[in-house]
Amino acid sequence: MVTLREQGVYYQGGQLLEAQPGLPAPEQAMRHTMCWQILSAHNTSADEKQLSLQFDSMSMPDNAYGKLLRQAEQDGLQSFAIPCVLANDHNSLCVGNTSARDLQQYGLKAAQAYGGVYLPAHLAVVHQYMREQYCSCGALLIGSDDHVRYGALGAMGVGKGGDKQVGLLLGRPYETAYPQVVAVHLTGRPAAGIGPMDLALAILGAVKVGGFVKNKVLEFIGDGISQLTVDTRNGVDSMTAEMGCWSTIWQTDDAVKEYYRIHGRPSAYRPIAPSGTAYYDGAIEVALDQLRPMIAMPFSPDHVYEIQTLNENLMDILNLVEQQAAKLSENPDIRLDLKSKVKSGKLYAQQGVITGCVGGTFENICAAADILGDTPTAFPLSVYPASQPIYVELMENGVAVQLLQAGASLHTAFCGPCSGACDVPENGALSLRHAPRNVLAREGAKPANGQIAGVALMDARSIAASARSGGAITPATAVEWTQSSRAYQFRHTLYAQLPQRPSTH
């Protein structure tokens, strides 16, 4: 399913090749990668190994822009040197006091004063907004959130800019060494019921968090790309942040061209592909036809199993998870008891969440509705479309009503479930989430206060299959369902017509 090649490889004619006579030197062939094409076009340095990059645009969500803007103001900020989006998607609920709303007022005034774009709360998750409004093939974007990944749209995104973002706002370049580049070679066609989280977790389980691809660029190539929808590619792309890579870039095709057309920006498209015999510092080979529904057990996104393997080895795996929970909590008085949630040989969950830049895409939510059908959900199921345009389309095509009638709840675009700011399960519960991260306390529990819960990452399709199966962990491939054909219409006026001011909850 996933094979790592830790030695350098070449890519020629759609195939990965070992070094052999007749192939160009690595130093020459590395210039034919998509990464080289984009970074060299944005490099202002004469040194090809030590880059001095200029970015096309940046984003800063509300958990970062206050600190970064104040630092830039102290350094003499007069106007933003590059297009900048100030997004409010991490603390939209503004619970407890006025500080969050005060920060939004500050962000609005800063956007007006320095020439930025202010994205009000509830309107979009910042990464979906950047996909819809700012990405273009060959572009280089930066943001202060981990999940700045737009490679599926032919653009390279770099997350966690921090102090370097302040310099970019002031017109200074971003200094960095040229990164190593790892090919992700996709072949075959995934089975029905396999979604983006399944592919992402399969890769994560192989490379590990902060392991094989740390600080490297992942370059997605191969015939298998054409078998994945753009929504699927975007969902996989966002999850690469959990692997610790520096950025990503994918081959583009007519599906990406159509994405830009639908979003009213056809000129943003151009073909992106390796330009010849390309050299990579390593490779990840993925046979898409061998993918199975996956689950990442608490408390790491690389704690990965096939769902079938989990169900066949349930007590042994749960025992390992409970032991890890005891070590992580550092509180001998609390423990995560998952084995008590096993009934008749099946593990039952108490909550489901489909959300954010990873899970809240149009196709994920539609597929979940198709699988759930008219069966009432067996546990509280929260669904967060990643942007207002997606939400409106779900209302127009009937998916929103279908989900509500099944007992799910629909919410505005919000990163809260990803950081434990909402949908906090009860103490000791198991939550199934199509969201980026499942480390301890990301679900909102406070181990230091005697509270603990577990988050298992799953694709929206298998979450819906589990809800349909009475709450028992169930792979989407194990239930019968028919995928509906629903075209997506992007309504750009939803951004143009809303006032650029802090929204009220």
Describe the structure in your own words.
30% of the residues lie in helices and 18% in strands. The relative contact order is 0.14. Helix 7 packs parallel to helix 8. A seven-stranded mixed beta sheet has the order 17-16-24-23-20-21-22, with helices on both faces. A five-stranded mixed beta sheet has the order 1-15-11-12-13, covered by helices on one side. The protein has 505 residues and is an alpha/beta fold. The chain is globular. A hairpin with a 2-residue loop joins strand 2 and strand 3 (15-17). It has 18 helices and 24 strands.
Give a quick precis of the structure.
This protein is an alpha/beta fold.
| Principal-axis shape | globular
Largest sheet: 7 strands, mixed
The strand order across the widest sheet is: 17-16-24-23-20-21-22
Content-based structural category: alpha/beta
Unreliable runs, pLDDT <50, ≥5 residues?
none
Q: DSSP helix count?
A: 18
Q: How many E-type strands? A: 24
Round the Cα radius of gyration to an integer and report it: 22 Å
Helix content: 25-40%
Strand content range: 15-25%
Average pLDDT, all residues:
94
Determine the N-to-C terminus distance. Answer: 45 Å
